[in-house]
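Quick one, tokens below:
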């Protein structure tokens, strides 16, 4: 397929630190200062998602006083395109 037609389409990229499930009761009890324990250990790579699809893993870095991510494991471009369909 000719990829040139899609190369300039914007996509949303996000990093996921971890996740958990809580009951609605516990959700309603959350307030400022609450701590929610996640399923990922400190120091584990973060998930890198494009439009909600996992495409890589990486570690947090600081770039010009802003957070960034250094990719440590990336799926191939062909697989990335397949996952975005």
């Amino acid at each position: 397929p000719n990829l040139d037609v899609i190369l300039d389409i914007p996509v949303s990229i996000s990093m996921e630190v971890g996740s958990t499930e809580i009951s609605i009761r516990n959700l309603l009890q959350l307030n400022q200062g609450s701590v929610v324990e996640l399923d990922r250990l400190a120091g584990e790579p973060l998930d890198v998602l494009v439009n909600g699809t996992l495409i890589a893993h990486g570690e947090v870095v600081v770039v010009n006083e802003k957070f960034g991510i250094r990719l440590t494991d990336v799926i191939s471009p062909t697989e990335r395109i397949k996952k975005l369909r």
